[in-house]
Q: What sequence folds into this?
């Protein structure tokens, strides 16, 4: 499954199973004109944007943020270390910052992983 299709499937799941949950989805992976991309960039922080943001606090955390990847190989080397890429490094900075501010923030690599994380988070 492509990252784009996985991202859409996660959003569809949340809409269908939890229609009262507010969430945002980063559109940066979508094809758009240079003008639209420039406008979008001007309206958000300079940090690496993550894919799905669930704006539902629970008894412990402020929200759940998921970064969607089609495979673990995009993030991790075979030995478990993070890949040395500017993109992953920037995403890891965003994840660390959000975790330090009382959010659960994780990578997800398939639909079941995302579903499990959403359901676990909502039960806390």
A:
């Amino acid at each position: 499954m492509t990252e784009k299709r996985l991202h859409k499937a996660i959003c569809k799941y949340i809409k269908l199973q939890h229609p009262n949950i507010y969430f945002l989805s980063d559109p940066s992976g979508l094809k758009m004109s240079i003008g639209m991309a420039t406008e979008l960039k001007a309206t958000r922080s300079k940090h690496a944007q993550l894919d799905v943001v669930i704006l539902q606090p629970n008894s412990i955390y402020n929200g759940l943020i998921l970064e969607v990847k089609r495979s673990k190989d995009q993030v991790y080397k075979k030995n478990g270390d993070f890949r040395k890429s500017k993109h992953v490094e920037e995403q890891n900075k965003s994840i660390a910052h959000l975790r330090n501010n009382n959010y659960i923030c994780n990578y997800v690599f398939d639909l079941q992983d995302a579903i499990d994380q959403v359901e676990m988070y909502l039960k806390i």
Summary: The chain has a mean pLDDT of 91. The two ends are 30 Å apart (CA to CA).
